[in-house]
Structure formats: structure tokens, C-alpha cells
Amino acid sequence: MLKLYTIPGAANCRSFSLFAYKAEALLALSGADYTLEYIADFSKMPRGKVPVLQDGETLIADSELIKAHLERHFSLDIDRTLTAEQQAVGRAFRVMLEERSYWANVYSRFIDPAGNDFLRNQMLGGVPEEMKDGIAATMRENVRTQMHGHGIGRHTPAQIYAFAQADIDAVLAYMGDKPFFFGSEPTSIDATLAGLFANWLVSDFDWPLRDYLHTRPQIADYVQRFERVVFGQ
User: Fold this and answer.
1) For the whole prediction, is pTM greater than 0.70?
2) How many helices (H) and strands (E) does the chain have?
3) Of 129, 121, 83, 99, which Cα lies nearest the Cα of 203?
4) Is the peptide bond before 217 cis (omega within 30 degrees of 0)?
């Protein structure tokens, strides 16, 4: 049986990591049997991050490499009906969501003061109270460094959030009334999109995109639809 090393989420979000959510969704869509193991010490993981898939003695780090492994060895074929053009569109949207839109949620939780209680009480909920502030401060500084190196962290908070809102407007315009990104069935791009949306929706504190999400009820509807079809919930 496959094992996915991941981090937990909340009742209405399978994982606080977009990429771990995506990896579990791809596992579910592959039909493979798997278990989850929650990890707190990332130093034990290849590349120092999750998700990581264990298949026998093999460890596969990174959600895209996990996808490739599932396609090669476990008959993950959810993109089989897509044309070459659709696959190119899906790849472009995925990269946009994972390399830019994603950072708005990271910023809201780790840098924006509005997300402090969420970080301490949700993401660090299992940590002893006396350790939370120190761990949160370390995580916050690491994220600040990562975002600055990426480049997006050099923008103002308003611009970071505006980038993400424009990205999601583009996604919704492309999807229109379709149940999923390309049509009636989920494909691999939906695993990324659902993970992003689920994490945005669970961040129910006073950050600028919360009000935006409430004006787009199709986003919550989409996540519920994805969860029902993929995870049977």
C-alpha cells in the first residue's frame, strides 16, 4: 500500500498545504490504496517538504513527480480525454496558481497580522502553548525570506492580493458554468484548483480575499462538488 506523508488540515480542508491536498486528490483519482502519515519534522523528508509519496522503498517528493509516478505505475489517466491544446492550457493555469496565486494564502497566514490567530490556533493547534510563539516567529521569518527570494514578497500586501484575485477571475472566466475546469469530470488541474480554493475558504479571518470569496459562491460550490466526486464526501 502507498503512504502519503502530509500535514493535516481542518474539518473542511483536508490539508493546510495546497500541494499535499493535490497529492491526496491525485491518489484518490488513481484508485490506488493509500494511507496518510502526518509529519511535523520536515527535515526527515526528501527536499525538506511535503507531500512525499512512499511506494515500497521509493520516496517521491513533489506533487508533480507524484503525479508522474501515479501515471506511470498506477494507471492515473484522468487527463486521457484532454487534447494537446487543453493539456497546454491546464499546465499554464496550474503554474499560475501554484507559482503566484498560492502565495497570497501563504502571505495571509504567515505575514499578514490578521492571520496570526489562525497560524497559532489552527496550523499550530497541536503544539504546546509555550512553544507556539517561537515556532510561529521562525516560520514567519522563513516565509518572508522565501517570498522575497521568489519576488512576490517585494510587492505591497494590496498588490499580492490583487494578483491572486485577478488570477482567480481568469480561472472563473475560463470555467464558466462547467462543473470542473474542462468539463463534466475532474482532471489533474482540478486537484490544484480545489486545493487552493479549499485553503482559501478555510482561512476565515479578516484578509482582503475573504470578502471576494463570499461574492463568488461558485467557488465553495466547486470545492464541495470536487470533494463529493473525488473523496465521496
Assistant:
1) yes
2) 10, 4
3) 121
4) no
Q: Which amino acid is at 194?
A: A
Which position has the higher pLDDT, 75 or 53?
53
* Cα distances (Å, whole numbers) of residue 86 to 78, 83, 105, 187, 225: 13, 5, 27, 11, 21
Sheet holding 52-55, edge to edge: 34-38, 2-6, 52-55, 58-61
Q: What is the Cα gyration radius of the chain?
A: 17
180 closest CA partner among 63, 142, 172: 172
Domains of the chain: 2-73 (3.40.30.10), 84-231 (1.20.1050.10)
Query: 139: pLDDT confidence band, cut at 50, 70 and 90?
Result: very high
Largest CA distance in the chain: 54
